[in-house]
Amino acid sequence: xxxxxxxxxxxxxxxxxxxxxxxxxxxxxxxxxxxxxxxxxxxxxxxxxxxxxxxxxxxxxxxxxxxxxxxxxxxxxxxxxxxxxxxxxxxxxxxxxxxxxxxxxxxxxxxxxxxxxxxxxxxxxxxxxxxxxxxxxxxxxxxxxxxxxxxxxxxxxxxxxxxx
Length: 164
Hints:
Number of helices: 6
Distance between the termini: 28 Å
Low-confidence stretches: none
Shape: globular
Largest sheet: none
């Protein structure tokens, strides 16, 4: 009896989809690696290195992880879908670069905001704005390289894994 005649046999021959918890763990690991490195760079830009650096970084990372990064994850999906719709003739790799650049600017702005807020507070609006802008502009090249690298190498594999 061949597989076309027996649906149970067909189902057994198809590769199994990874469990949901593995997909969630993968996304969390990526968010931790990217968000952790970016908030670390930004904390250093805001405060320099001091004995309190790691506690300040951890606090900034946890704030970003609970606010900015979930929003970024949803934005990434929305921007990717929009890019597919608005740039249908563009090669996938080029489209991933466009999405990566847009996401780098958006996420870097948000992470710079949350990290500067965590490290300096809002007591002086002018100082906050100047520090946020300096943090954003100084860390943006790092974020662009990181996000474009991820968009070209890791993102396609992660998308395939999440769709499976």
